[in-house]
Amino acid sequence: SGVQKDAGLALGWFQDSRAVQPLVSMLAAADGGMRKIAALALGCFQDPRTAAGLAALANDPDPGVKSAVTLALCQVQDSLSVDSLIEFLNDPDADVRSSAVRALSMSGTECALQALLARSVDPDARVRACLVGALACFTKGPDFAVALGKLYKDSNASVRFSAGITILAEGGLDLKNLIC
């Protein structure tokens, strides 16, 4: 119900540790909206102990729940969270993959960077466009330049535009090698 959802959000907002277990239990609710609220509220705690319960929703039938889980996992920031987020990159839903790309960009780990670099061939242009912004969050290196060059040659104009803006923001990188 609406009251339960509001209560779930409030529990996350106030971050009372007594709320963690009830919120973890809410992850198993039949209502997708309740699972989504529970995931978002648990993310507020930034507690690695919640990562396993959140990761268990990787196969949830509701893409909105999975997107909420990616947001929560990026707040937890531990190795299980990063591994789970990498798994979300293979989700059939492009919105979930886009959420995972954004969440991984916040982790800053080498493992996340390598997983993102491999996504430059995602079949959905929205995911590739998110990827451009995500890559800009990492330390720049040769892999970054190569991936950005591929995205600059993308078949989708929005992806090419985003990559071009990022290239300019990064001082042009080595444009001759990227574009030619």
Features:
single chain; 0% strand; mainly alpha; 12 helices; 180 residues
Topology readout:
Layout: H1 2-14, H2 20-26, H3 32-45, H4 51-55, H5 63-76, H6 79-88, H7 94-105, H8 110-117, H9 125-135, H10 142-152, H11 157-169, H12 175-179
Helix pairs in contact: 1-3, 2-3, 3-5, 5-6, 5-7, 6-7, 7-9, 9-11, 10-11
Q: Largest sheet at a glance? A: none
Radius of gyration: 18 Å
Residues in β-strands, percent: under 5%
Question: Helix tally?
Answer: 12
What's the total count of β strands? 0
Order of helices and strands: HHHHHHHHHHHH
Distance between the termini: 57 Å
Rounded average pLDDT: 84
Alpha-beta classification: mainly alpha
Poorly predicted sequence stretches spanning 5 or more consecutive residues: none
Can you characterise this structure?
It is a single chain. The chain has 180 residues and is mainly alpha-helical. It contains twelve helices and no strands. Helix 2 runs antiparallel to helix 3 and helix 10 runs antiparallel to helix 11. The model has no long low-confidence stretch (mean pLDDT 84).
In short:
With 180 residues, the chain is an all-alpha fold.
